Structure to design on (165 residues):
């Protein structure tokens, strides 16, 4: 009886119930590749949503300036000043800083205003009281800083309407 149990032990020790080092390395490599693809996809998705959100925020700021101008709030006209890392809603016919009435929209470090192309070659769009029209129509381009191919263009028309393309 004793001899049979020893033979069984020897057989079970040789059957190799564990994983080899090569199998573990292959599994780790596969998990690493899948994680890398998921990370790149998530980053691209996050950047696209961040770009969309920033463009919408700038559009909202422009529309707020136009509405305030049309309603002649505080008997003033309003505009928006654009810089690479922010957009500022201001009262009056020109941008001045500092001002307590300015409303600043700071952009995420990942996003930037890469181009401001307005009639008059300035960085400000100012709306007329009562009509909401502007002589500073044109476009503002917003992009992901690390990928210049990912852009949104905000079109500002002379009638004051605004659209994201």
């Amino acid at each position: 009886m004793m001899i049979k149990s020893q033979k069984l032990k020897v057989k079970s020790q040789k059957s190799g119930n564990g994983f080899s080092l090569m199998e573990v390395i292959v599994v780790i490599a596969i998990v690493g590749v899948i994680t890398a693809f998921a990370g790149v996809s998530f980053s691209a998705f996050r950047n696209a949503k961040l770009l969309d959100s920033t463009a919408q925020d700038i559009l909202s700021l422009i529309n707020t300036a136009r509405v305030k101008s049309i309603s002649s709030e505080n008997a003033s006209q309003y505009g928006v000043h654009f810089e690479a890392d922010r957009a500022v809603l201001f009262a009056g016919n020109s941008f001045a800083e500092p001002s307590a009435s300015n409303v600043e929209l700071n952009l995420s470090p990942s996003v930037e205003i890469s181009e401001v192309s307005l009639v008059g070659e300035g960085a400000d769009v100012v709306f007329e009281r009562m009509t909401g029209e502007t002589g500073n129509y044109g476009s503002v381009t917003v992009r992901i800083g690390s990928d210049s191919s990912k852009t949104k263009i905000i079109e500002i028309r002379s009638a004051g309407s605004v659209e994201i393309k």
